[in-house]
Predict the structure.
Amino acid sequence: MSIRITVLGCRGSLPAGRKDTVLFGGDTSCYEVQAGEDLIYLDAGSGLVSAQTQGTREVHLLLSHPHLDHLMGFGLFPALRQDCRIHIYGAAWEGRNPEEQMRLLFAPPLWPVWPGDGPAQIFFHTVMPGEAFRAGGFWVDWMPSFHPGGSAVYRLRRDGKILVYATDFEHGIEAEQELIRFAEGADLLLYDGQYTPEEHDIYPGFGHSTGETGRRIGEACGAKRVWIIHHDPRATDVILTEREKRLGIHYARQGDSAEL
């Protein structure tokens, strides 16, 4: 069975809805993965608001971590207005499980009502280190990323196909080797390339990487395709196009779609 991935949002940190960000898009992290009737979303950034869930009775949402840019779209997730089962998966970070993480944001005075009070049913699943789990017809593995407060890198497997989602990942010798092993043989690697090498030197410890590193890791793990994601909200279309041409690697655009 084929697996289709669609980019609903690939900005990092903050949305960037300006005239000079139209080509790559301004919504924050959200990726739709569909195989048959199985529908999975990777993160709940502002891109989740544009998800097409009409007629869907069950969806799966994998949260990398609870930073605002990866959660902000959940309150307007279209599936919340339907008779739909929403399964949410994530690790416990800083002593809080996924439900506790989300309730910190989606409650007064920051949000007027808990999204689960509508017609949809929400089920939370705390994923444990080293344990694979099922999300619909997918097997999912995860490894801790290198990011302040913690984040998860996910590997989705189905019918011999592998998708690896490595957002909010700061490279380093040990980190790179761990990710290379984890992503070996990926059909598609989504990799955080928010910074240039020069910017990364200015912001060490911020938990992000570079397109140059993404290309290197993709080659080392044998990934068939690498897409650079989590673009800096300050990076214009001109800047991102120049980086893409210089590195010879694809920088994801909102609306991009691929079949694995």
Observations:
- Residues 170 and 204 are 9 Å apart (CA to CA).
- The first strand starts at residue 4 and ends at 9.
- Helices lie at 98-105, 173-182, 197-202, 211-221, 237-247.
